Input
Amino acid sequence: MSIQKIKTGVLSYGMSGRIFHTPFLEESKYFELYGIVERSKKSAKDKYPDIISFDSVSELINDTEIELVVINTPNDTHYDFAKQALSAGKHVLMEKPFTPTKAEAEELFRIGKKMKRWVLPYQNRRFDSEFLALKQVLDSHKIGQPIELHLRFDRFRQEIGPKVFKETKKPGSGILYDLGSHLLDQVISLFGQPKSFFKILKKHREDTEVDDYAFLLLNYGGGMQVHITTTMLALDPLPSIVVHGTKGTFIKHREDPQEQQLSEGVRPTDEAYGVEREGAEGTLKYIDQQSNIITEKVASVKGNYMHLFDALYQTIRHDKQYFATRGDILCQLEILEAPKNTRIKLK
Output
């Protein structure tokens, strides 16, 4: 069967464009990297000489050759740009967070359905090596019934970052929207919508306008609790995954190498891409059927964000179910935009 490539335009060639999108669009057999918006410096054209370097978002969106628009601009622009792209008859791949509010997301889904176009979330962290290791452990049932899961995304930056849109109080700003949305999506993909949740946001860095610490406690009933923590002030990061079950425990540090590799110029098709360093295995400790305590090292599955683009193609071309659903996104946004320091019961 011949492959009909999807001509794709990317709205920004900042960090996410350079690392998380263009390398895959360029390497994938399913996509053609057609154009990128660059308002001033034309650095993308240097790396990808065959692309069109557009001067504005509207110019890219209105190009009739483009089928898919990647929206990787500041969070508070996602809704407007997605609406423009869908109205112009384009499919949309939306960076996280999808939109600042659930209502905006619902409107985009309605427009997409009306225009018979897909609007899909870029939730690449479902393909991180340590998360794939967690899924592998849960599927093995060696820890029994999970009762307590801790997910963390720790970074350390005392100063206010140079990315103004991330450090300015705007819709969709703050560390929970930025990093917590990854962890929340992972949890929803595993367990679905929680029965209730409690949320804490804090500001610790001097002169910060946005939250730089966030905590979510998700209640799944039957004693199952999920703790999500993300902070900008963790000089010595804790394990990113700790899960306790009725028969055992699994602990894993954040070791997925993909972001670092991509920033260093490693190609997604390189053999070493997505492979964790030796010694980065997780530790699984459990009680076997003879009541022996068993300790195992669990090597992570190779991470690969290309799987996201493979799934994207199958959805657009063949209407196959995308891995992150409309319900997943609406659940995520309801939690992200909820008031802080309150316990909320979901319907």
